[in-house]
Structure formats: C-alpha cells, structure tokens
Amino acid sequence: MVDVTISLAKVEEAYEHEKQTKAKIEEAMQLLLLNDLQDTIDAADEEVDENRLLPAMNKIWPYFILCLKNKISVAVIRRCTNVMSEAVEIAGGDFFVRRFHSDGPIIWKLLMSSPFRRKPMQAKDENPLLLPYRSSSGSSEEPMAEISNQKIQAAVLDMIAKISLNKRSASALGTVLKKVSGLVVGVAYSSVTGLRDASIRALSGLAHIDSDLIWLLLADVYYSVNKKDVPSPPTLDLTGMSQLLPPPVSSKDYLYLQHGGGSFGFDVDPSSVEIVFKKMLCEVFT
Fold it and tell me: Which residue stretches, if any, does this entry annotate as coiled coil (predicted)?
C-alpha cells in the first residue's frame, strides 16, 4: 500500500511536468503557425486537469478505518497504522484534518481500550470483517490478549509520533491535538511500562506541534505528585508555579483527564510520572 501511495505521488509529479511540456510544445506550434496540427491535438485532448493523488486517498481512507475498527489481527493493524502515517505524509496533513476529526474516535479507542475490560457483544446487524480463511464461530466478546493489545497501542502511538514529527503531515492532528495529547499523557504516566517508550516518542512528536501544551499536561501531574520539587520563580516579578498550575482538588482534575485522557483505564503511577517527566525535560524541553 505504501508503494502504491508513493507511485501515485510520483504520477502526480510527472503529470505536472507533462502539462508544462505540453504547454511549451503548444506555444512552439503556435509560433510556427502549425494550425492544422494544433486542431488535431485539441480534438484528441480530452484529459481532465485534476489531482490524481487526493481522490485516491479519499477512496483508501475508509478501508484504513474499517481495518482499525475490526481489529483483524495485530500484524494487520500494525501494518495499517504504518501505511496511514506514510499516506498522510505523502498527501499532506491538511487533506486529513476533517478525517481525523470525524474518524478519530475509532483510532483513539485503540488507546483507550484496556485489555482487562470485556467488550460488549456486537449488535446483530454488525458483521465483523473476516479474512477468507477465518471462522466466524469465535465469540466477539472475548478480549484480546494483553500483550497483543499493547502491540496495537504501541503501533497507534508510533503512528502519532510519525505524523506529528513530520512538518508536512503534522497539520492532520490540528483539531484533535488536545484529545490526543491527553490520551498519550495518560498512557505515559500509567503503570503499563511496555508502552512507555512508544508514548514518549509520541509525546516528543506532539511537542513539535505544541510544546507548551505537552509541558503543561505533564507538569500538572508531576508537580502535583512531587510538591517538594515545585521550582521557585527566578524573580519576584514572575508568577509562581502554584498560580500557573493550581494543584488539583483530586486526581480527577488533572488537565490531561479534562482533555480526554481519562478513558484509558489505568491510574497514574508515581514512578512512571517521575521517569517520563524527567526524560521529556532532558530530551525535549531543554
């Protein structure tokens, strides 16, 4: 799928060169007064001047979402998220802003799903997407194994990192930035250490889009858990940390939860908070 997308982009680039070349030939023909040949070319030219890449992306996108929604297998979803990030980079993030806004909940649900929660039975009119050799006798309420679920979540986090780190594709997350950032902070600060590296990569990418937002979401939890580490303002004229980030009344008042990170299903782990915040402070915010 990546090769197809790259090929479409190259075809689009070649098409631009083709138009330029054709314009030069037509100009030369007019200068040489080859009117008869010009009329023949005009009659045969029925091409439509349109973008070939974006319509193709528009047709492919629903299949990406269908793949993620049905969770066929870990390998398929990991491949799908990789191709999605490549497609967004090639076609440009602006084209996908509305799509991430409307279809994003299906993608983010993969992050919010805890492997310890049983999923409700599918409605009778919903037919799961099955590979030809798969049997449909399995129960749809059986949860995916924890390790498999984490691999899927890591793939989604890596997709977020790739999209946000690339200037051409980063705009795709513009309307869902707070939601996604809240979710990723929730993952990073949880006790699921298997997702820590992937969540840090995603946070580093999101910080390229809005470093202030990521720092606030991380610092809000860190300085609430580590009150003794709250830095003093360098001068009396500056506002203190407690005024910039008023301590939450309870853990439910954390900023990342208000932005959508509360549905992940795992509580804040103090040791993860310490590790992730200091790593981000050292590698991203300095």
Answer: 8-54
